Fold:
Amino acid sequence: MYIRQLHLYNYRNYDRLTLAPHPGVNLFFGQNGAGKTNLLEAVHYCAVGRSHRTPYDREAVRRGEESAFCGVTVCRAGAEAEIAVRLMPGEGRKKQVFIDRKRAPRLSALMGQLRVVCFSPEDLSLVREGPAGRRRYLDMMISQMNPAYFMALQTYQEALAQRRFILKECRRQGRTEVPDDLTAVYEEQMARSCAVILPERRKMAEALTPVAAEKYLGISGREGEKFGVRYAACLEEGVEIVPEALRRLKENRPEDMARGETAFGPHREDLALTLYGKEMRLYASQGQIRTAALALKLAQFACTERLTGEKPVLLLDDVMSELDLGRRQSLLKEISGAQTFVTCTDESDLAGCEDLRAYRVTLTENLLACVTETRAGDAAEEEEGGNVLEEPVFE
Ligand SMILES: Nc1ncnc2c1ncn2[C@@H]1O[C@H](COP(=O)(O)OP(=O)(O)OP(=O)(O)O)[C@@H](O)[C@H]1O
Ligand SMILES: [Mg+2]
Structure:
């Protein structure tokens, strides 16, 4: 799949922008703070309805404006779809999703329309930090292939929050027991969501494990350095999920109430990473951490392609400058054939890549981003006029 057009309106430091990217590699270069990451972030919004760097939609709305808009026209297997997200954090309605210009009732409608894999320097936290980032990595990957999974996650999160609130209230009122009729309905929703979430996570982790190990080896070149990915599940394989989850939740009520947290559930799971069988976070060197993070993302790319039959769109934010020439070239080889959006501070950072379209991103006097095409790439003849259809940004 690839993006044929991209539109931004009041998005971060963009006033208006319409861009017709190359189906291959698109390089965005320019000084720090110009708006390169902002552009990639907007593509990420169109894929999964959230930023890759902040959980707060408000930040993506241009300063002084009420709402922001980002939209893409995606070509997949001969068909096209127009996907757009409007962020309006001020009005309590956090965001609206449009598919082919029609308002979709749920955010989950976005999932699978445009699939992306995003590489950024923050990927190191996948390895270095706690399980939350790894769960998000797994959840975003599965959600992009399975909207029902995303809906189950949302239902789970809402029910979890409700149950937590009730337990907190019970504790505040000095109760020693939690009345069944207060929490049972939420526990039922949580258990039913588990029946969707757990098998999908297990299946995806199993698909990822060998691929991640192979990608790790491809980068490190060291046979003995075994990278392991293991799904640390909240329920053993083979148990009947709904009754078992209900039992655990009910049993845990007093303890959950006392501790103010929920001990059981998919929100406590992990994708455990190991090197030589030892926990990676505590054991690996900087270089090994970097290699593992890259291997996880490459595995996501490979598994998404294998499971959907289409290459996802790649977002490479600031990762090139962190890789040595050999790793840069092997990364470009791995991802060849996929539409790629790359940011660099210098155009020469992608010197090894022959066919690409390059854009310079600069700041105008009023600190708005301005995108100028500096190199068209091979597919240019097919298009009429310039590839940057930018409206004037000066007023
Ligand atoms: N909501 C907003 N409204 C207006 N401007 C914003 C908003 N959010 C961020 N910016 C501006 O966007 C710029 C940052 O853009 P971005 O992160 O895309 O930079 P970059 O080109 O990726 O830089 P670097 O090379 O340092 O990574 C900053 O100048 C910041 O002030
Ligand atoms: Mg940046």
